[in-house]
Design a protein that fits this description.
This protein is mainly α. The protein has 18 helices and no strands. It is globular.
């Protein structure tokens, strides 16, 4: 059905993608919390887990509940949970309070990721959906890119990095009120798959490997985001306020890589793109073992962001094309795979504590990258027939 909603309906939905990007601030926030509370690497690794664990636990229940209350209300609920989470550290700035805050941020983000993309289909014509999804991902990437700068501003100008939380809460409140004031016709509720139908597709070996590929690439993404400031602190003795910009370099190059990837995937087969970028990613991870200067580390992080930027999209589209009749189940399963962001950082922390340097974190990321390379036989050679937005 063609939808001809005015721009006033589209803008508040797109603005929600900016709130969705707040989850990526967990990378630089982990370094602040670790420094302030003198945490070990293993304990600090729990912080990203508090954000991304909820994709495993809540993706399917949120999809079921969304079918009952509607997409717009579900997005508003995600914003409200995010606002509450951002206010927790102001009431009690402790390690426990920070864990609660990031848990609520993860719950809110899970709700947003499950409901915001479908809501976009209610305000744009089907012919403009790909470009609108791309626009949403660009807005999310701008939010991810801005997070370390907002944290550094709060630390240097407002006296404490924690003041970034009310800034995020205020932006989330604007998004909530804007969407509440925007009537959106969602049409009749659609049937949702049962949990049994969702998990049944895992019996397919290719789907299982691709699902684990989603777990791996999201884990690498979150892991590099978390590692960026720590690597600059360890190798270059940079203060945390400046080291946080390493995450911004990573996200900036990730945005560039996503744009370039969207162009390349119209000309190259999925397999050629996947193999070339995974090999580039592996090479740069190995190079980061030896990078000792500020510029070498930043260059390595930037190239890694570029290399891994569209791997999620390729895996996601390959899964959909393998079992097109089970598209709903595949989509729900792939969103569940985002919980990889909860698995990799704790592993990085344990190995880093064991070896005494961030080389341990790089080793964990390299192993997950090797798994992704082992998934090459699962990637078919034909060109991508539609654009799929990266996470």
């Amino acid at each position: 059905m063609n939808k001809k909603h005015p721009l006033s309906h589209l803008l508040p939905v797109l603005f929600g993608f900016f709130v969705m990007g707040f989850c990526d601030v967990v990378g630089v926030a982990t370094s602040y919390v670790q420094q302030h509370f003198s945490l070990s690497e293993s304990l600090a690794g729990l912080i990203p887990s508090m954000v991304f664990l909820w994709f495993l636990l809540l993706a399917v229940p949120v999809a079921f509940w969304m079918n009952r209350i509607g997409r717009r209300r579900m997005v508003i609920a995600g914003n409200v949970v995010t606002i509450v989470g951002m206010l927790v550290p102001l009431a009690d700035y402790s390690f426990a309070a920070c864990l609660v805050a990031f848990a609520l941020l993860g719950i809110g983000n899970t709700i947003l990721q499950v409901s915001l993309n479908p809501l976009l289909t209610n305000v744009v014509d089907s012919r403009a959906l790909s470009s609108s999804l791309t626009a949403g991902q660009v807005i999310k990437a701008v939010s991810s890119f801005s997070g370390p700068f907002i944290a550094a501003f709060a630390a240097s100008k407002l006296g404490n990095w924690v003041w970034m939380f009310p800034i995020f809460a205020g932006i989330s409140l604007v998004s909530t009120l804007w969407l509440m004031a925007t009537p959106i016709d969602e049409g009749p509720a659609e049937r949702t798959s049962s949990a049994g139908e969702l998990l049944a597709v895992l019996r397919d070996r290719k789907i299982t490997m691709l699902f684990l590929g989603i777990v791996a690439i999201v884990g690498i993404d979150v892991g590099l985001n978390t590692l960026a400031p720590k690597l600059l602190i360890e190798r270059c003795d940079m203060p945390l306020e400046q080291a946080g910009y390493g995450s911004s370099v990573y996200f900036f190059c990730r945005v560039v890589g996503a744009f370039v990837g969207s162009l390349l995937l119209t000309r190259l087969s999925d397999r050629k793109y996947y193999v070339s970028h995974m090999l580039l990613g592996l090479v740069v991870l190995c190079a980061l073992y030896f990078a000792g200067s500020r510029y070498a580390v930043l260059a390595g992080l930037g190239v890694a962001g570029f290399a891994f930027s569209s791997i999620f999209a390729v895996i996601y589209s390959q899964a959909l094309k393998h079992l097109p009749a089970r598209a709903n189940e595949i989509s729900g399963l792939m969103i569940m795979g985002v919980f990889g962001g909860a698995v990799v950082p704790p592993l990085m922390g344990v190995v880093t504590d064991a070896v005494g340097s961030q080389a341990g974190s790089l080793a964990v990321l390299t192993l997950f990258a090797l798994y992704l390379l082992a998934c090459v036989p699962m990637i078919r050679s034909e060109k991508t027939d539609s654009h799929v937005s990266a996470r």
